[in-house]
């Protein structure tokens, strides 16, 4: 049986300075657990290959401030692995619903080539739902985004705080499984993306811990940043 995951959560994102990141990570390390998947205290590698249709609907809806929108991606934590995750991230304001299906490397390559019929053969409601989305929207691969993620977790309401760093992008070579893929820096190294994810609510004391001067929640999309980078440098 294919592994599936479907959750709906709050998701709030911030840009913070490197100094605020260092302050927050040291504080959270005393209150929360680090993600056991981290190879070291600074986190782990993530690579996402994002898909969109010929009209770049995911980009345009984001820029237009559409409240309900979908994103599709293949995600790996090591390009030498023989499996990836196919994810559909469905967002409505601060609420996020994520569907996930594990794919083999061969299936991922099929999807990149435009063949998604194999999804119907999986014993997975998420796979079938994503299949009909992909066929209806006729999406194709657009951009690879690499970054390093550091994660802190709390069991209460499944609170998860992440720090995304060293964000890089490739818009011309979409080889998801290339460990030597050349990438370009997407933003300044002293800028960190902090995400706070949780079910239902945060404890009353939690927001005061990570309240930085001049920092407010923002609608941040690494995919959209990567596509805008492509438009700026390549005229897409």
From TrEMBL:
Residue ranges of domain VTC in the record: 8-228
Protein name: Polyphosphate polymerase domain-containing protein
Organism of provenance: Marinomonas ostreistagni
């Amino acid at each position: 049986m294919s592994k599936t995951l479907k959750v709906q959560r709050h998701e709030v994102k911030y840009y913070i300075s490197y100094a605020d990141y260092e302050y927050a990570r040291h504080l959270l390390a005393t209150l929360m657990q680090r993600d056991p998947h981290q190879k070291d205290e600074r986190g782990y590698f993530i690579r996402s290959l994002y898909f969109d249709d010929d009209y770049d609907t995911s980009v345009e809806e984001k820029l237009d401030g559409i409240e309900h929108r979908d994103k599709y991606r293949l995600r790996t934590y090591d390009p030498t692995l023989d499996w990836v995750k196919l994810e559909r991230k469905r967002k409505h304001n601060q609420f996020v619903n994520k569907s996930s299906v594990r794919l083999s490397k061969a299936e991922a390559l099929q999807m990149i080539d435009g063949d998604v019929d194999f999804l119907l053969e999986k014993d997975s409601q998420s796979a079938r739902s994503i299949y009909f989305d992909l066929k209806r929207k006729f999406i194709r691969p657009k951009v690879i985004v690499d970054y390093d993620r550091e994660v802190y977790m709390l069991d209460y309401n499944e609170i998860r705080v992440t720090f995304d760093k060293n964000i890089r992008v490739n818009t011309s070579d979409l080889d998801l499984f290339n460990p030597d893929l050349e990438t370009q820096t997407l933003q300044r190294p002293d800028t960190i993306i902090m995400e706070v994810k949780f079910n239902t609510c945060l404890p009353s004391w939690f927001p005061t811990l990570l309240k930085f001067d001049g920092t407010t929640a923002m609608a941040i999309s690494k995919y959209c940043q990567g596509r805008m980078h492509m438009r700026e440098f390549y005229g897409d």
